[in-house]
Design a protein that fits this description.
By secondary structure, this protein is of the alpha+beta class. The chain has helices spanning 41-51, 91-94, 146-158, 165-172, 183-190; strands at 15-22, 30-36, 60-64, 67-70, 83-85, 100-105, 111-121, 131-136. It has a domain at 15-137 and 182-190: MM3350-like (Structural Genomics Hypothetical 15.5 Kd Protein In mrcA-pckA Intergenic Region, Chain A, Roll), CATH 3.10.290. The protein is 23% helix and 26% strand. It has an 8-stranded mixed β-sheet with strand order 5-4-3-6-7-1-2-8. The model is unreliable at 1-12 (pLDDT under 50).
Length: 195
Amino acid sequence: MATRKSATAKTPDSIYVLRIDLAHLKPAVWRRLEVPAGITLARLHQVIQISFDWTDSHLHGFDIEGRNYGQPMPGPFGLEMDELDERKFRLGQVAGLGSRFTYTYDFGDDWTHAIKVEKIVPPKPGVRYPRCSAGKNAAPPEDCGGPWGFSEMMQTLADPAHPERGELLEWIGDDYDPAAFDIDELNAGLAVLKV
C-alpha cells in the first residue's frame, strides 16, 4: 500500500527563500536567505546569528504557528513546558510557502525577527546553501537596548554636541556604519556552516 506524503512535506533538496526583517526598526534592516528545507531550527538559528552579526550570547526562540521552539539547556533556564526542542524539527516540517513566523533573540533587548517563506525552489547546481541573496543595512550592535535603545543610540550619534556621543563611539567603534551591508562577507561567514 502506497503512503501519501503530507501536503506540507518538502523534498530534502527544496530551497526555502526567507525574507527576515528586524521588527520595529527604521530604516529597515533585513536579509533574504536561501536555506535547505531540511535545515533544523537549531541550525537556522545559527544562520540568523551570522546574517545579523549577532554573537549568540543570549537566549532565543522561534514562534511558528503558535508553537514555541527553543534550545534545551541544563538548569532552570532550559526548555519551558510549552517549548519544543529546536534540534528535532526541520524547517520543511513546520513551515510552508507563505508561512510567517518569528525568531526572537535576547529576550531582554527583544530583537524580534519577522520571517516569511517567500518561495520554495529547487536548488541551483553549484550553489552552496545556506546563502544570502540580498539585504539592507547593518544590524544594530549587540546589547544596545533593543529597537528603542538603538533608536536613541542613532539620535545620539547624529548629534555631534551630545555629551554621550564620545563614550558611545568608544563602545561601538567609530567605524560602525548603520547603512553598511556586505553580502560577500556575510556569505563567507555562512560558508563555514554545514547543514
